[in-house]
């Protein structure tokens, strides 16, 4: 379904395959992967560890070239081009020598925004995500969850239309993770961006996404596409509903089968 920005997909990955060579041995990592993200849509990829999810993100971000297939954004072929997306990597990559505010400001600097305006926006958002008072702190002074929120803000305030989030909560303890999921859900529902989100947490994917691509084990390919039917705004209670639990069970079953198949 075309979104508000016209008939183009925010992202269209078309038939992407990739192999790596190491000491003449070929590892096939991605096999004919196609997926789309519409403008202002939240889409997730779930798949077993090592199935090529981060590699796909690197390809979308132009850091790696695919062996076959294309990456298109807003109707343009951007395969191999950098700078088209905002990217939040698996580890919160904040610059340790910059304050939290200056880390978040980086997005505005890249956009070429006037400093005062960018600073005002950063302050506003830092407050909103519970980091008010930490503007002048350095990353090491913050908890993992707070660092992730700052890294997320930096990605959110970046000029690119599409955000890629690579397992942003994987390093957090269970409770913080749950808080962060709800925080992200609320923030995104208020400020919709086009998001492609990687996780291997099924509950997280179901809570946040409009659509989920379930990947096979390596070489990663699209096994199932799930349209997540829950209306928005979604609230935490959703995860206790019967429909949610049924869908979760179904996805878990697929993942288990896939794990069993690939470890045989
Ligand atoms: N630059 C690279 N060179 C060689 N092998 C790589 C490279 N990047 C990733 N791989 C391999 O590709 C496979 C998929 O890795 P990755 O994309 O990180 O999976 P995931 O993010 O799904 O856990 C792994 O076997 C990994 O060792
Ligand atoms: Mg990864």
TrEMBL record:
Pfam families: ABC_tran. GO terms for molecular function: ATP binding. SMART domains: AAA. It comes from the Bacteria. Residues 11-242 form the ABC transporter domain. InterPro entries: AAA+_ATPase, ABC_transporter-like_ATP-bd, ABC_transporter-like_CS, ABC_transporter_ATP-bind, P-loop_NTPase. Keywords: ATP-binding, Nucleotide-binding, Transport. The keyword Kinase does not apply. This is ABC transporter ATP-binding protein.
